[in-house]
Specification:
Blueprint: H1 3-16, H2 18-23, E1 28-35, H3 42-61, E2 69-76, H4 81-94, E3 98-101, H5 105-115, E4 120-123, H6 130-133, E5 140-142, H7 151-160, E6 165-170, H8 174-188, E7 195-201, H9 210-219, E8 223-227, H10 230-242, E9 249-252, H11 258-264, E10 272-276, H12 283-295, H13 304-321, H14 327-336, E11 339-341, E12 344-346, E13 359-365, E14 368-371
Helix pairs in contact: 3-13, 4-5, 7-8, 13-14
Length: 374
């Protein structure tokens, strides 16, 4: 993370979120945010940041925490591990012990090596299974699904639809590779008769995806499973359509944003996603979305509710403990208390994973995500 880049990101943040600038003259309770705020993965980082902003606005309107208004301190890691390490060191230097982030698994993993027991971190979108499963990161929690959480419903969907030959394509990110490897392992060890006809990654930097499209065509697959971000998904899907390949497509929550539908247009129709049950239909969630759009032109993105839930749960624990420095006590409350949020009830298991999140399948129909009913 270059210092000039950090200053530029904070300046941009203050233009987008002017309430933070107003808080800087007051004594505030600071919580850090880190994720990709620029470059390719910015839509995912901003989605988390918007959710965090939503929760902080609500809490500040109710009087703040421990008699102080809450201030977000944002640092951009661009989803790059090297930058995430620099961000973590900067937060520790500033004495900031509470972090919402990071937004990508690889960056999160790198940052956690630095944080150790000096900060408590909750991510809304770092999905790599080992981040919690390994037991190496006792002060890390997440409100998003693990890589292995949604794959069961995906496998069942493939069986129910009678698919026989599956092409699995990932985007070579930690997220894309992690999910694809789990699906591949489950299918290859399953006696149900579904074959993996192709298991391959793409290079996002390539101008054309013609090579992978040719491989998909040659594989004779009857369905495509995509694991990766929506920008590359759009490029691949349009390329498939242009070549006359109208394969059914199954994916997951990285595509669960209106921005994907807007970008892909009619090419997105019929795509099925395995996602956490959508909380956006509640009255409180609808009001949060309305408030968001009164401040920002961008869509809330796929991790808005996860980050809002993470932020509210974290600050509720801080309020119960009475300070921001007793991380062991804050951790204890996160594992014992259930906090009502716009994401739904938030409580964590002993590993740091959110408890009770249900999975559903949705399909793109008439330009919207709707529950898949059959």
């Amino acid at each position: 993370m270059k210092i000039i880049s950090k200053i530029a990101v904070i300046a941009v943040f203050l233009m987008i979120f002017p309430f933070v600038g107003a808080l800087q003259a007051q004594e505030t309770l600071k919580i850090g945010f880190s994720g990709a705020l620029t470059r390719a993965f910015a839509p995912y980082g901003l989605s988390n940041l918007y959710g965090m902003e939503c929760a902080v606005n609500e809490i500040n309107a109710a009087g703040g925490v421990l008699g102080k208004q809450v201030e977000i301190v944002p640092l951009d890691d661009e989803c790059e591990p090297e930058n995430a390490i620099a961000v973590a060191k900067e937060f520790i230097k500033q004495g900031i012990t509470l972090i919402i982030g990071h937004s990508c698994s690889e960056a999160t993993e790198a940052a956690l090596e630095v944080y150790g027991d000096k900060a408590l971190v909750i991510s809304g979108s770092a999905t790599k299974t080992s981040l919690t499963e390994s037991g190496k990161n006792p002060y890390f929690f997440r409100t998003g699904l693990r890589d292995d959480a949604a794959t069961g419903s995906q496998i069942q969907y493939l069986k129910d639809k009678g698919f026989k030959n599956v092409a699995i394509v990932h985007d070579d990110t930690d997220y894309g590779v992690g999910v694809s490897e789990i699906i591949n392992a489950k299918l290859t060890s399953d006696p149900s008769g579904i074959s993996v006809a192709l298991f391959e990654g793409i290079n996002s930097a390539e101008d054309s995806f013609d090579k992978i499209i040719s491989q998909i065509a040659a594989s004779k697959a009857d369905v495509l499973v995509w694991t990766g971000v929506y920008n590359d998904a759009t490029k691949l899907i349009i390329g498939l359509k242009d070549k006359g390949l109208n394969l059914p497509i199954l994916s997951s929550d990285a595509l669960f944003t209106q921005s994907f539908i807007n970008q892909a247009g009619l090419n997105a129709e019929g795509i099925v996603l395995s996602v956490a049950t959508d909380p956006s239909t509640s009255k409180e969630a609808q009001q949060a979305i309305k408030d968001h759009h009164s401040r920002h032109a961008e869509d809330i993105g796929p991790y808005f509710f996860n980050a809002a839930g993470a932020t509210k749960a974290l600050l509720a624990a801080v309020s119960s403990v009475g300070n921001t420095t007793d991380l062991a006590a804050i951790k204890k409350h996160l594992g014992e208390d259930t906090v009502e949020t716009i994401q739904g009830p938030v409580r964590f298991d002993s590993k740091g994973d959110i408890i009770g999140v249900k999975i559903q399948l949705v399909i793109v129909k008439d330009g919207k995500f709707v529950p898949l009913t059959n």
